[in-house]
Amino acid sequence: MNKLTNKELKKLESVFTKIQRNIESGLNTLFVTNPIRVAKVWKRDQGGGGKSISITGDTIEKAAVNFSSISGKQLPQSSIAEELNTKSNKFHAMGVSVIAHPMNPFCATSHMNVRIFLELSKNNLIENWWIGGGFDLTPFFPTIDESSTWHSKAKICLDNFDLKYHKNFAKNCDDYFYLPHRKEKRGIGGIFFDQLKHKNIEDSLDLLNAVANCYIESYLYIVNVNKDKKFTAEDREFQLYRRGRYVEFNLLFDRGTKFGIESNGRTDSILASMPPAVNWPFRLSKNIIRNEKKLLRFINKSWNQHL
Question: Which domains does the chain have, with CATH numbers?
Answer without folding.
Answer: 6-299 (3.40.1500.10)
